Amino acid sequence: MKRFFTILLCALSGLAQAVDKPNIILIYTDDHGHADLGIYGAVKDIKTPNLDALARSGVVATHGYSTAPQCVPSRGGLMTGKFQGRFDLDNNGSALDGFNKETTIATRLQNAGYVTAQFGKWHLGPPNEITRHGFKHVYSQHGGQKFAANMTIDGKDRPMSDLSPEAYHLDGCSKAAASIIERYKDQPFFLYVAYRGPHTPLDAPQSYLDRFPGKMPERRRAALAMLSAIDDGVGLITSTLKKHHLTEKTLIFFIGDNGAPLKIHKTDSPLNGDAGGWDGSLNTPLNGEKGMLSEGGMSTPYLIAWPGTIPEGQVYEHPITALDFAATACEVASITHQMNLDGVNLLPHLTGENKTAPHETLYWRWMAQSAVREGTWKLLRGGEREYLYDLSNDREEKHNLAKQHPEIATRLRSKLKIWADTLNPPGMALGQMAATWNDYFDHYLDGKAIVSTPGKAAKAKTEEGMQGWLARNGTLSQKAGVFLLTSDNKAQAPFITRSQLKLQSPLSALLIIQSDTAGTGGVAWRMEGDKDFLPTNRVAFKVNAVSGWQIYEVQLPAKGKMIHLRVHFPLGITQIQTLAIKDAAGKVLLSLQP
Questions:
Q1: What is the pLDDT of residue 487?
Q2: Please, how many CA atoms are within 13 Å of residue 45, restricted to the half-sphere of its CB?
Q3: Element spanning 457, H or E
Q4: Of 284, 319, 353, at which residue does a domain stop?
Q5: Taking residues 34-47, what's their average pLDDT?
């Protein structure tokens, strides 16, 4: 009996400690440009009253950064609190093996007694496996298609399986999140609300579009409408907290995953005809866009609020990073063991206890780009190009000072190299600059005009949207964050192809796909000197017609230089989340990525 009461007292003590811990909410937006929060005052057409109120109740971080200018790596860093290059998650085409071995912030908080829940876009593997990363409840709706969920929109449990949309996806995530607050109002909870907006496809319902009348690009109207839906959702979440007297018991972070994709020209193409175009959001006044380590690609909307603990009405100008979320969350949850995180606990800096900058330096590496910020100085590299900016009076990165201050450039380059050599794989760049990013650097950082050729615009947009891949016996399109390959007929299976390659073997292919038809897939190739595809130059794999994503890793026993590649799929419709061709070291040489 004595032993029973001892166990009971320990359990009650642990429960009491858990109840005393603050709730934590992380709201993450997708391709959300720096300009698009009303409180920033950068543009006049944005309407975000609930986010503005959240900002006034806490902190506006004017120099808040993502960890990458692309979805997958930025989310991997966010969820682990470690720079994603430490576990070989450098881009959307990277394998998830390293991430799958890491401990997420959700797992840490779950082990500390928190109820954990994920809503919206995951993009770090099959949605039906999100629970293995520490989330008890999952409602991964991020588009108009079926999605994986083990809860309904009103917070009731269900077996993890496909669920048809119960609402517009942005509204659905907000309502589901509010239902979890209602359900667990007496327990500490961690909510990760990852809105797929204003990322393309731009799919706001008419009711939200009608909030923005008048003459403007339709893509801009659609982005404003999606952001208005997100703002409504933030209002629902904060009002639900207030209803249950949880406002002062809840720490909220609001962060964007990277800058807006402008595609240089901000072309107002039809919403249903260019899923990979400009998403309508703006990075004003910052230079550059998604896919660049410039300010426009990396500095995102960033708000922090904890009324009663963090003083309200702050504009915080020291540089901080999305990696700081995990470190801060661990601190408030009293998690202090086995951390090894790259971020810092921001609370002492935001409460005024610590007046110093949270970071002496911030570092980034993405593909062939890398950057370091130390104080107001920023060194940015793209391939062999190098730029040095003093952000104290040149936040727009218009004046390259590398020649005027070679000693500063040398010092920062040395620090960047030392840091980059600790990554996996090491190095300040992973391969050569792709043509797209060379164009972006030419336009934004070197002031060169990039002009579309009249008469070829439609073809160029199609090839850009499909990233150089062409479909045969089928149609390749993009929807809800994935590519769809749809058969044209019932006789010949579809495939996608890339030519004019120079890929040195040995090579491997990583595919994450979902097919509505069982059958055989395959990878075929043509080597330098081959006039045709030889039967020996093909590796087949079995494709199952099952719900959920299937992962295939295919070794390509080629010898020499590969110049032409085909990836075959079964008849019907195949969803492609990831397709990546890698070298022997695991470096992605070629990919198809949303």
A1: 84
A2: 19
A3: helix 457-465
A4: 353
A5: 97
Residues 198 and 203: their CA atoms lie apart, in Å, by 9
Phi, psi at 405, each rounded to 5°: -130, 65
- Residue-wise pLDDT tens digits, 394-424: 999 999 999 999 999 999 999 999 999 999 9
In this predicted structure, the answer to whether residue 353 has a pLDDT above a threshold of 90 is yes
Domain-located, residue 30 = yes
In the structure, how many helices (H) and strands (E) does the chain have? 14, 28
Q: What is the pTM of this model?
A: 0.78
Could you give the dihedral angle defined by the CA atoms of residues 16, 21, 26 and 27, in that order, rounded to the nearest 10 degrees?
80
* CA distance between the termini of the chain: 60
The C-alpha atoms of residue 212 and residue 537 are separated, in whole angstroms, by 55
User: CA dist 551 to 15, 90, 96, 513, Å?
Assistant: 40, 18, 10, 7
The domain that contains 208 carries what CATH number? Answer: 3.40.720.10
What is the number of domains present in the chain? 3
The burial class, CB within 10 Å (0-12 / 13-18 / 19+), for 513 is: buried
Asked if residues 362 and 321 have their Cβ atoms less than 8 Å apart, the reply is yes
**Distance (Å, rounded) from C-alpha 167 to C-alpha 90?**
34
CA atoms of 245 and 506, how far apart (whole Å): 60
Nearest-angstrom CA–CA distance, 594 and 579: 10
- Quote the tokens at residue 302: 């960033």
Residue 118 main-chain phi, psi, to 5 deg: -120, 140
DSSP annotation of 39 reads G
377 forms bridges with which residues in the sheet?
Answer: 374, 390
Q: 169-183 vs 218-243: helix axis angle to the nearest 10? A: 10
pLDDT, mean of residues 336-361:
93
Closest residue by Cα to residue 279 from 255, 262, 299, 293: 262
Domain ranges, residue 494: 466-592
* Rounded Cα–Cα distance for residues 395 and 320 (Å): 15
